[in-house]
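INFO  loader      accepted 1 record
INFO  loader      residues=308
INFO  predictor   begin
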Amino acid sequence: MKTIHGIENFPADEASIVTIGTFDGVHLGHQQILKQLIDTSRKSKLKSVLLTFFPHPRMVLQPDISMCLIQTIQEREKALQKTGLDYLVIHPFSTEFSRLSADDYVKQILVEQLNVRKVVVGYDHRFGRNRTASLEDMYHYADIHEFEVIEINAEKIESTAVSSTKIRKAIDEGNIELANTYLGHSFTIEGMVIDGDKRGRELSYPTANIDLQNQHKIVPKQGVYLVKSKLKGRVVYGMMNIGTKPTFDTTMPSIEVHFLDWNGNLYGQAVQVELLKWVREERKFSSVEELQTQIQADEQYCRSSIPT
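INFO  predictor   done
INFO  writer      dumping tokens
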């Protein structure tokens, strides 16, 4: 897969089949659309293209409303590399771009820039200024510009019962196993390992403190999770705490992972962590000793829950 930043950089001499959307999470519903796109591209000898936008359109058009994403754009790109897609086109979304009329959007973007021969879109696809144009309009433009519309009907989309909104809700509620089922892969967080307050070390459970470095990345419900990572080429499981460590009367939220059977130094390194299972709520303990006893129980539970 080749990633193109900006529609104007797409090699317009290559005829394409295109789908359009943010594809946040690259979940099972998205995967179904991509499979149809890629299968059709191979039969038709066309280049498969996903046109997506960054920042997310809602971040630009509704800046006062908080918007958290399942994936950063980098995480989304990594997930899409595994699909067999030919091109990921990431176009900067701006207020100016949002004002393109449906006519100009189809003619300038799809036809002239992406050299489209087929478009794969859902039954509820909207486009153009204020999203006023519908699928019916897309069929109209297809007749004018001689491309084909492949409609993914309501029954096919709704049969997956999956949406990015449902996944965000599951993550917010700590229901990580449901989120992973909807995604078709594990929800991940990624960040740099930074210095912490060394509380874990004092408890005989040293932790890697992860700085997400992306304010728009969704953070799961506070609590303890079973996680998995790949460190220096080795699969390692661990237990992660998201929260404020109330036993120590701190208020600053943090994300800390104790990796099981791991003694390496991770400071200053980027780490990706897969969340596998919810363990328990974060809570305040009456003493450090009580907390330590609970952490030992958490470790036993996590070890017993590691997939075999």
